[in-house]
Specification:
Elements: H1 14-22, E1 26-28, H2 30-40, H3 44-53, E2 68-73, E3 83-93, E4 96-104, E5 111-118
Parallel strand pairs: 1-5
Antiparallel strand pairs: 2-3, 3-4, 4-5
């Protein structure tokens, strides 16, 4: 069942996210990097490749093909217009299914990847 407050499109357009990833204007938080290594044996290179393959179609319309899951306000930046976009992607890269979330702070360009892990380790809300 979809989360109660879900909108059907991410706050941070994937076109913008991809441009920032391609420009190497991103930061993978240490926990996200460690989880990606533990779950997939992936480094930042594979994380970036996976981010470039995400689509922004609403997950609950087709859970096997669609990736965009939810958006929530960033609790650490309540005064800013900063939102975290959540993705759940089956068979995204090398047959792996990924859960990730990231954001771009208002007035900044850097994509901050907060989480990147094996999808089946994360229950649906």
């Amino acid at each position: 069942m979809p989360p109660a407050a879900t909108i059907k499109k991410p706050f941070n357009p994937l076109k913008t996210v991809r441009a920032r990833v391609n420009a190497n204007d991103g930061k993978i938080q240490p926990d996200a990097l460690q989880d990606a290594y533990n779950d997939f044996n992936w480094s930042g290179i594979e994380i970036r490749q996976a981010l470039l393959k995400l689509n922004d179609r609403y997950y609950f319309d087709d859970k096997q093909k669609n990736h965009y899951y939810n958006t929530k306000p960033h609790a650490a930046y309540p005064a800013e217009n900063t939102f975290i976009d959540y993705y759940r992607a089956h068979n995204l890269l090398d047959g792996e299914s990924v859960y990730t979330h990231f954001y771009i702070r208002e007035q900044q360009t850097k994509v901050i990847i907060n989480s990147f892990k094996e999808l089946y380790n994360v229950p649906e809300d």
